[in-house]
Amino acid sequence: LPMEQVMSPTKLIFEPTTEHIAAAVAANKKRTDAQTRCKHGHEFTAANTGRSKEGWRQCRACARDKQRRYKETGSYKR
After folding, report:
1. H/E element holding 58?
2. Distance (Å, rounded) from C-alpha 22 to C-alpha 11?
3. Which is nearest to 65 in space by CA: 40, 43, 47?
4. 59 burial class (0-12, 13-18, 19+ CB within 10 angstroms)?
5. Does residue 66 lie within any of the structural domains?
6. How many structural domains is the chain composed of?
7. Which domain holds residue 43?
8. What is the C-alpha to C-alpha distance for residues 12 and 63, in angstroms, rounded to an integer?
9. Is residue 29 part of a domain?
C-alpha cells in the first residue's frame, strides 16, 4: 500500500487510553480462549487447566513439568 493510504487520517481512531487497552485485552482474550492446546501440545481440558494468580489460563501438565525441572536442576529452563 502507498504510504498515503497507510497514514490516512481517516483511519485514525481517537479514544481514551483506557478504552484502547480494554479493547486490546478483549481481543487477546478472544484469541487465547479459542486455543484448544497449550504451546507444548497439551489439551486445555477442565482437568488440565488452571488459573495463574493473575487470572491467566495455565496448563497443569506444563506447570508440573516446570516444577519437576526446578526441583531437579534448580532452574526453570528447558
Report:
1. strand 57-59
2. 20
3. 40
4. buried
5. yes
6. 1
7. 38-78
8. 42
9. no
Residue 76, domain member (yes or no): yes
Find where cell 480494554 sits. 22
- The C-alpha cell that represents 57 in the structure block: 489460563
Cβ atoms of 72 and 78 closer than 8 Å: no
Q: Are 60 and 48 in contact (CB under 8 A)?
A: yes
Q: What does pTM read for this prediction?
A: 0.59
HEC readout, 10-30? HHCCCCCHHHHHHHHHHHHHH
Amino acid letter for position 44: F
Domain membership of residue 27 (yes or no) is no
d(CA 59, CA 39): 9
C-alpha grid cell, residue 46: 477442565
* pLDDT per residue of the chain (78 residues) written in tens, 0 to 9: 566 666 777 777 777 888 888 888 888 888 888 889 999 999 999 999 999 888 888 999 999 999 999 999 988 887
